[in-house]
Specification:
The chain has 469 residues and is of the alpha/beta class. The protein folds into two domains: 279 residues, 3-Layer(aba) Sandwich (Aminopeptidase), CATH 3.40.630.10; 158 residues, 3-Layer(bba) Sandwich (Glucose Oxidase, domain 1), CATH 3.50.30. The protein has an eight-stranded mixed sheet with strand order 1-10-12-11-13-16-14-15, with helices on both faces. It has an eight-stranded mixed sheet with strand order 3-2-9-5-6-7-8-4. Helix 2 packs antiparallel against helix 8. The protein is elongated. The two termini are 24 Å apart. The C terminus is likely disordered.
């Protein structure tokens, strides 16, 4: 009889807990959709400040603005964490054309890749050699490459439903193309933009020369997908055509910037830290609304939504707006370094850096037991059409924390990604392409996961977890 009573009592506790969780999650979603701040914050960040390249005046304006907004929320602690960041400037707009015969040219859309050197005064004009991957250069050898512009024309793989897989499959061409082409005497590199649709927007992004000496470094630019198709077609008809491009970018001395941090102190386990974040910097062509203004304002709203919903976290909830994810990851590395130096105990970190589109769920870096635990919460997310709870990549800025904490659980918000690379690193990454409702759903989704992680922890053998499973 006693065992039956205990079982009934446990089942009652479980039902009450589940109902409380459902009510709290609903309150979070209601608050975000009816009284959200993420869209308003993003409006200011995008339209009043704009693109926020590391080391720029706009980046520093964004630091001041987000710190001020954190302070308005009445958080327990708000501070700036200094970090030295690289400073690369684009300079005057780039210009390029295809020359089929002397005086007969067709203008095309290009942009310098982040970190590239400038062209010589007057630009570069040369014949081209087209390859799909920089690995093809070794087969061609110096004889066929020297003195030419290498055109790397590798499309993103369109039949991959997870578009980040398609991006990852060819991002190395952008990153290492110039370094590899320079070894064979190329005078420049043109890389097909990483974009799944055909349009006229060139997409920038980070590139690196590795340890290549300065005098051997060659200029590198991205070309729009429409113009990549045009160039490839014209080369197929006449491989004697020439390509001209001019760019005026420059790398300056490192400057000091900041990670912006705000937190709510835990009521029971203040030394256990749950982190949520996005990166405050962006490329300079657009205003960085999707990459990663969306993640920034969603992370800020996690703290506001918890406070407004009357939830008093047991663990410390910390929002970190990282600086310099795009061209150095200095902010993420500095944060992990300081966390280790201070002996802080991070148990969970969630990053939003995949755009402000409709949330689908999360990808987790964790063991099987922890994955089973979060999957047991699926029914709480089902009313909001959130279904994706799988193992996978979390995020770049929280990645350095892996080295500090053996058992930390890392997660990434996974919005629908089908349109993300239409805007990624391009001039059309602007506020008008962010849907208010989708952005606010993402903020609520993140807050709900943080609420559950805080309530039940990352201990996969707790009695509560066993009851819920």
């Amino acid at each position: 009889m006693k065992r039956i009573f205990l079982l009934l009592f446990s089942m009652t506790l479980l039902n009450v807990s589940a109902q409380t969780d459902a009510d709290n999650v609903k309150a979070i979603f209601d608050n975000s959709l009816l009284n959200g701040m993420s869209y308003q914050w993003l409006d200011h960040l995008s339209n009043q400040i704009g693109g926020r390249l590391s080391g720029s005046l706009n980046a520093e304006r964004a630091v001041a603005y987000t710190k001020e907004e954190f302070e308005k929320l009445g958080l327990d602690k708000v501070w700036l964490q200094p970090v030295m960041v690289p400073r690369w400037v684009r300079g005057a707009p780039e210009y390029a054309y295809i020359e089929t015969s002397p005086g007969k040219t067709t203008s095309v859309n290009i942009c310098a890749l982040g970190g590239s050197v400038a062209t010589p005064n007057g630009g570069v004009k040369a014949n081209l050699i087209e390859v799909e991957t920089y690995k093809d250069l070794e087969k061609l050898g110096r004889e066929k490459i020297e003195g030419k512009i290498v055109f790397i024309n590798r499309p993103m793989q369109a039949n991959l439903i997870h578009t980040f897989e398609a991006y990852g499959g060819c991002s190395s061409e952008r990153y290492s193309g110039a370094k590899e082409a320079a070894k064979y005497g190329a005078v420049g590199v043109i890389v097909r933009s990483l974009n799944l649709r055909l349009d006229d927007y060139p997409h920038t992004g980070s590139m690196s020369y590795g340890d290549l000496p300065n005098h051997l470094r060659i200029p590198s630019a991205a070309i729009s997908t429409n113009d990549a198709e045009l160039l490839s077609g014209m080369l197929a008809l006449d491989n004697n055509i020439k390509f001209y491009f001019s760019q005026h970018c420059k790398k300056l001395e490192d400057v000091q910037s900041y990670n912006v941090i705000g937190e709510i102190t835990g009521t029971e386990f203040p030394n256990e830290i749950i982190l949520v974040g996005g990166h405050l910097d962006s490329w300079d062509l657009g205003d960085g609304s999707h990459d990663d203004g969306a993640g920034v304002v969603q992370s800020m709203d996690v703290l506001r939504l918890l406070k407004e919903s009357g939830i008093k976290p047991k663990r410390t909830i910390r929002a970190v707006l990282f600086m310099n994810e795009e061209n150095g990851l200095r902010g993420g590395r500095k944060y992990a370094e300081e966390a280790k130096r201070k002996g802080e105990n991070h148990v969970f970190a969630l990053e939003s850096d995949s755009g402000g589109f409709t949330p689908r769920g999360f990808s987790f870096e964790c063991n099987d037991a922890m994955l089973a635990k979060v999957q047991s919460w699926r029914d709480l997310f089902k009313p909001y059409l959130i279904h994706f709870f799988e193992k996978g990549y979390s995020g770049a800025d929280i990645g350095p924390l892996r080295k500090n904490y053996e058992n930390i659980v890392l997660a990434g918000l996974r919005p629908d990604s089908q349109r993300y690379f239409d805007h990624h690193h391009a001039a059309n990454d602007t506020f008008e392409h962010v849907n208010k409702r989708e952005l606010e759903l993402g903020a609520a989704t993140m807050t709900s996961l943080v609420y559950l992680i805080d309530k039940y922890g990352t201990d996969t053998i707790s009695n509560t977890a066993e009851l819920r499973d």
